[in-house]
Amino acid sequence: MDTEARLSVREAGVRDAELLLSWRNDPETRRWSRASEVVPLADHVRWLESVLASADRLLFVAEADGPVGTVRFDLVSDAPEGTWEVSITVAPECRGRGLAGAILAAGECELRRRQSARCVLASVHEDNSASVALFRKAGYTGTETAGPFRVLTKPLENA
Q1: Which UniProt key words apply to this protein (predicted)?
Q2: For the chain, what percent of residues have pLDDT higher than 70?
């Protein structure tokens, strides 16, 4: 059985704080993020606790024989009802294994299971060709830009 077939997502918890922070502070992750500074542990734990307490955010850890990445969905308040923004990270040690598509798909499935999601959007740095390709392959379309970020969307009504 291949890794993609064994991939699943679970809710993140405070116990994941150090792991998630190590992925967040990875130089390649920061290169493509809206906020590129290194985040201290105490700030990250406060952020994580607020995410876990929010009904407007879902944070999952993707696993396949151990943690391989994370996918987060944030409800977009200034968009049509049921619009969520996705953020995905593949663990640095798992990059290049073709896991991003499976992480995204598993996250979208869990989002649909838990919420009345109608649309997902992704803000992708225009120079991050791998992420642009990931979202395009997953059915995201659009070319709207917000600074150096391209906004891609995917309707979920028929998903």
Answers
A1: Acyltransferase, Transferase
A2: 94
